[in-house]
């Protein structure tokens, strides 16, 4: 009998499926991604490996060549990411993207979106927006930075760049953007909270008060920074959430790509005291092939503790990869577990 999950993989021609299927009426076995006509469910025989299919007397399909050495889906996705990231100033057509990964344009689009939660075009736009930020921070003119980042017209910049402000304002290091802040010493080091009118935009851990303030200044070097003791409440709430489980959710001003925002939202759903690996979080998001992209999104989290990226651990359970220091991450996890 063929279970429904396997049958659906075959119907959908799922390239991530790790099985091969034989067709009793033809004696041929295929990969689920084969473009041949779908067989009747009653004629299917499912095998874990190519060798199992051969031992059962089936011969390989000449169309999908299931016995030919090939790259895994992860490798193909990585090649698409690399092609995009190596050409941030150029829009990569789907046909070119698929050709480099050994699949059709349709499959390239479908697999990329399934893995990373956004289309290749949206991902390219996000990279161009990042390059625009870099150009503006380096002091380039707004016009030059826009075109150097690969935007064909200045009007494109206002669609999904997630600057949180106009390019001209961002170029000025956030000039005119009022960010209130407060610093306090905690059991985990100095904690600084920064907030715009929209909500908390920065919550960072540091070794000293000076380091804490400088972390905010480096993000918005020309913003108007104003000390506000009232933000100490957000710091105390963050610590209480870690040490006692008392949950207070202040408004957050999170700025990122659609995929980053999706990862940060998923992080907030991990219960206190629990941990997940990057792969487990990716699977919970319904994106089992996006562990690498999830890791990158965790690394860019700007709001510690309230967006608990400290609850993500390595595949072997080790507390690796924390923006504010692995030793501090161990302390926080120990506090959560009591």
Give a short summary of the structure.
The protein has 338 residues and is of the alpha/beta class.
Structural commentary:
The protein folds into 4 domains: 4-60, DNA Methylphosphotriester Repair Domain; 71-168, Arc Repressor Mutant, subunit A; 178-243, Methylated DNA-protein cysteine methyltransferase domain (Double Stranded RNA Binding Domain, 2-Layer Sandwich), CATH 3.30.160; 258-336, Orthogonal Bundle (Arc Repressor Mutant, subunit A). The protein is 41% helix and 14% strand. The chain contains 14 helices and 10 strands. The strands form 3 sheets. A 4-stranded mixed beta sheet has the order 3-1-2-4. A 4-stranded mixed beta sheet has the order 7-6-5-8, with helices on both faces. Strands 9-10 form a two-stranded parallel ribbon. Mean pLDDT is 81; it is low at 152-173.
